[in-house]
Amino acid sequence: MRTGNRADLAVTALDLRDPAQGQAADDYVRGHADGTPFHRPAWLLGVEEATGHRCHLLAAVAPSGRIVGLLPLHHVKSRLFGQALVSSAFAVDGGILADDPSSLAALVRSAEDIARAKGGLSIELRGGPSPAAHWERRENEHLGFVRPLAADDEAELLAVPRKHRAELRKALANPALRVEHGREPRHIRDHYRVYGESVRNLGTPVFPARLFREILARFGEDADFTIVYEGDRPVSAVLTLYHGDRVMPYWGGGVQDARRLRSNELMYYRLMSHGRARGMRLFDFGRSKAGSGQAAWKKSFGFDPQPLSYHSWSPTGEKRDISPQSAKYQRRIDLWKKLPLPVANLIGPYISRGLG
């Protein structure tokens, strides 16, 4: 299906389920300097299958047939939060990838055409270059944290600032704690148990379990779990993506006892070693809200914050509000924290799939 064109450039919606088209898109993402896991067909299809949010993958194609730009757009639908075209859903990145300004402009025009055709939807781009002057640009709301991995475990320990290093040493000296890396069914189960409790304690509904299973299966060896156990009890857990030379811990958390045990510190320290053994060069701690406790914690681990830019546009001027910082959600967040965990995990996925 052709959704836009110029004399020397076409914008086409790729069929992610066609092996050849999916491979061409994946090759382009892997070869692009700004490509992320959230541009890959593995992510796009995983989200679509787990949540029902259809993905429109727009490709700018040169006359030679070579892809020169990509823009994935998940059509997120929710009765509670409204609709939007999001690049990419459930991700912290996924904005436009383009080889040149002409490719970028063609993708932007096609995305705007789709938004209008679908009744005036807003478009949300997480990361990437600025689409156009008439798009809204939001900066300094979120921070990214990336630094090189150290040469070995001892150097990694010394890279952690002294105060936080002391906390990490306590965890390293605790004989009751052990760390596993893996992709087995029990790791999926234990991760979801920890993650569900962690986000409930933050006042956030947990994502559907199928989302984690789909991402793990579709990424193959480019994804795994790191879990810290106190005896047989999982206390900290994270799902990590590996892209290019980056270790990217993504969905992670800890139970109420994690702070006392310093198990989160231990988990990320061991993950750094695990990533180094895989030949990774950078540790990408992901994004955090500016001014949040999570951002301060990452900084205390030796990471310097870098502001992230997000972009949005709407043909009607109306945009959805899904920010947990929004005043209208504060009472709901406070109430969610008090829910019994089984109840939160039962109804949470029905709510969270609409956040995207």
Give an account of the 3D structure.
It comes from Sphingobium baderi. This is FemAB. The protein folds into two domains: about 150 residues, Aminopeptidase (3-Layer(aba) Sandwich), CATH 3.40.630; about 130 residues, Gcn5-related N-acetyltransferase (GNAT) (Aminopeptidase, 3-Layer(aba) Sandwich), CATH 3.40.630.30. The protein has twelve helices and 14 strands. Strands 1, 2, 3, 4, 5, 6, 7, 8, 9, 10, 11, 12, 13 and 14 form a 14-stranded mixed beta sheet that branches. Helix 2 runs antiparallel to helix 7 and helix 5 crosses helix 9. The two termini are about 25 Å apart. The N terminus is likely disordered.
Keywords summarizing the entry:
356 residues, Aminopeptidase, 2 domains, 14-stranded mixed beta sheet, 38% helix
Topology diagram in text:
Blueprint: E1 2-5, E2 10-14, H1 19-31, H2 41-51, E3 55-61, E4 67-78, E5 82-87, E6 97-98, H3 101-117, E7 122-126, E8 136-148, H4 153-159, H5 162-172, E9 177-182, H6 185-202, H7 209-219, E10 223-230, E11 233-243, E12 246-254, H8 258-261, H9 263-277, E13 282-289, H10 293-300, E14 305-313, H11 330-337, H12 341-352
Helix pairs in contact: 2-7, 5-9
Domain BioF2-like acetyltransferase: 162-299
Protein name: FemAB
Assign the CATH superfamily of the largest domain. Answer: Gcn5-related N-acetyltransferase (GNAT)
Give the ordered list of helices and strands. Answer: EEHHEEEEHEEHHEHHEEEHHEHEHH
First and last CA, distance: 25 Å
Supply the CATH class of the largest domain.
Alpha Beta
Q: What's the assembly state of these chains?
A: single chain
Q: Would you tell me the overall average pLDDT? A: 92
- The Rg value, from CA coordinates, equals 21 Å
Q: State the major sheet.
A: 14 strands, mixed
Strand content: 25-35%
Output the number of helix runs. 12
CATH architecture of the largest domain: 3-Layer(aba) Sandwich
Using DSSP, what is the number of strands? 14
Residues in helix, %? 25-40%
Outline type: globular
SS class: alpha+beta
The CATH topology annotation of the largest domain reads as Aminopeptidase
- What's the number of structural domains? 2
